[in-house]
Amino acid sequence: MKKSMKAALLSGLVFPGVGQVYLGQRRRGWAFIVSVILLFVTVVIRITMHAYREIAAAAANGVAIDITAIQKAVAAGSDTVTTAGLALLVLIWLAAIIDACMAGERLENTGVGPGG
Question: Hey, where are the domains in the chain?
Fold first, then answer.
């Protein structure tokens, strides 16, 4: 298997940035890895905080906590920041796949590694 294909698969199926690390582009790969982790954690925290608010409101009103109602409330209450964060996460993931493929092709065509 070509390095470009293997790098693209690693960034696409394992984790964004792993393909770059495989190709020797450690800084670039870690930039993708860290940015995706931070973005993912931010989105999860925002969704979790919204769910906790719904649970607290149900508990304060003496209503039984219903997971289906909480799921619907969280989905309906998704704000633009959460939606934008998820969209950005997908874009970064795609960028990592494309970048890994292109870097692998450059390496295959020139035989020169990163920085060389």
Answer: 3-110
